[in-house]
Structures are given as C-alpha cells and as structure tokens.
C-alpha cells in the first residue's frame, strides 16, 4: 500500500470553496449557550461570507446574537471543512439587501422570503478555516488564519 | 408528486440504532466552552452509551469535563440524528474496563490502546435523541426523552 498523499494548501482551498459554493450546500452549525447547540442549516457563500437563514427565535440565532460566534462543519466526517466564524450582520428577511437574499435563494434550495415572518439572514465572516480528510492530512489543515487564506 | 411519508417512531429508532452501531461510525461532537467547539470523532455504541476516545488535553475533552454535556450529530445533514448527551464516565485508555475498550476497538477502525498515553474514553449517556430527514419529518423527530426511547 502506498501512503496517501496529503493535498497541498491550494488544493484544499479549492475543495473548500467548492463545498461552500455547491448548490443546496448545508453546514452543521455549532453555537454555545449554556450547552452546545448543533443543527444542520442551508448556507450560501456570498462575497466571502457564509450566509444562513433561520428563525430569529431559534436557539442557534439566539446563541449567535449573544456570543457572536459559531463553528461550522461542511462535508463528511472524513472530508472535513471546519470554519470558525464571527457574526458580522443580521438582516430581517423582509428587509434584507436584495442582492444578499437573491444570492441565498439562488444557491440554496429555498427562499426564506417565502416564509418571511420571523426569519433572519445571519452573515458569518470566516476567521479560521481548516480542511482535512484523515490523519495523514492533519498537518497543514489550517488554510485560513485571521480571515486570510494562507494561499 | 407524492408527498414523502414521514417515518414512524419505531422506524426512526431502528435507523438511529443502525447509525450508532455501524462499523467505523463517526459523529460530529459539539461542546461548549467560551466558544462552541465541533470536531468529528469515531464512536462506539456500548450498552446504550456512546463512547468516544480522544486526547485528555483536547478542547472537546476539556469542555466535556467542565460542562458535562455534548451534542452529537450522526448521519448527513438531510438524514439527521442528534443526541444530547451527559458525560457519565471517564477512563484513561490504559486503565479502561477491558470490555469497554474491546467493544470500542471492535466497532471503530482504531484501537486507542495502541496510542495509549494521554488518551481517554468518555462515556456519554444519551438524554434526548432526535431523528429526521427533511421538513416533512420535523414533527415526531424526538425519539428519546429523558433517557427513554419513546417506542
């Protein structure tokens, strides 16, 4: 058996962007309140930000409003993208910038404007992104630091 | 188009147990510290408990020691199992009950006893379990409450 070759940073970045930009992409969204919360949510990748849409009264939205941070996972458990993010904007769905709402509806498989009442768009800025498959790729897994891609 | 039929509770329970007992099963493990943490870890299902093995100094182990709780996701984002769990036992890998360590090694694709130093088994008791695929299965998604299966 040949040992698998770890991907270089440029390849990991390309694979990560493909996951972020995929039609109907979902992420596992972890937030901290008194306990950890974790739910799957549809995402859109808009101008270097991850956009999610959810009920303002949901645990995830309340945790994000209070703490300002979330950790997101995309991909499978053996083809991982993890993003530590900061909440940079909140828009009620009915008053969101049209470009943002259009971009979300175009990538996602639903348009929150159809549900409207009580939903918000949360705009998350990735600060650190890690990408790895299995143990042989743990080294070199950090491909964004302090909001800047390393390649 | 026919509307998809939601699974009954018994079927959701069976599907959930299949995920928990699958060879080389992984879970996304969310824990709360100052921020939310989230990592993929191999699990074993042993006597109604979820067992994970990890470095005692890892963020996840430290968060679990401090808070006593974790929220785990198994399956895909559109075939979800979510388990709210409580830490009920911690064993250094080298001093773990042999039955527990053997069961973990048998289901997982690695034996933490080979790495040994610094690793612990954490035994998590599920308190609440939810299982759903997509929107049509949100109703009826809670299949365990207060540690008891609803069916």
Structural notes for this entry:
2 copies of one chain form a homodimer. Chain A is built from 3 helices and 8 strands, in the order H-E-E-E-H-E-E-H-E-E-E. With 151 residues, chain A is an alpha+beta fold. Chain A has a 6-stranded antiparallel beta barrel. In chain A, a hairpin with a 3-residue loop joins strand 1 and strand 2. The longest helix of chain A has 13 residues, at 9-21. The radius of gyration of chain A is 16 Å and the shape is globular. Chain A binds chain B through residues 26-28, 30-40, 63, 67, 69-73, 77-78, 80, 82, 84, and chain B through 26-28, 30-40, 63, 67, 69-73, 77-78, 80, 82, 84.
Topology:
Two copies of one chain form a homodimer.
Chain A: H1 9-21, E1 26-32, E2 36-46, E3 49-55, H2 59-67, E4 69-76, E5 79-92, H3 98-107, E6 119-132, E7 142-145, E8 148-149
Antiparallel strand pairs in A: 1-2, 1-4, 2-3, 3-6, 4-5, 5-6, 6-7, 7-8
List keywords for this structure.
six-stranded antiparallel β-barrel; alpha+beta; 3 helices; homodimer
Shape of chain A: globular
Largest Cβ-defined interface:
A-B, 26 and 26 residues
User: Care to count the β-strands of chain A?
Assistant: 8
**DSSP helical segment count of chain A:** 3
* Average pLDDT level of chain A: 95
Radius of gyration of chain A: 16 Å
Helix content of chain A: 10-25%
Query: In terms of quaternary structure, what is this?
Result: homodimer
- Beta-strand percentage range of chain A: 35-45%
Structural class of the secondary structure composition of chain A?
alpha+beta
Q: In terms of per-residue confidence, which ranges of chain A show pLDDT below 50 for 5 or more consecutive residues? A: none
Q: What sequence of helices (H) and strands (E) makes up the elements of chain A?
A: HEEEHEEHEEE
Walk across the major sheet of chain A and give the strand order. Answer: 1-2-3-6-5-4
Compute the separation of the termini of chain A in Å: 31 Å
Which sheet architecture does the biggest sheet of chain A show? 6 strands, antiparallel, barrel
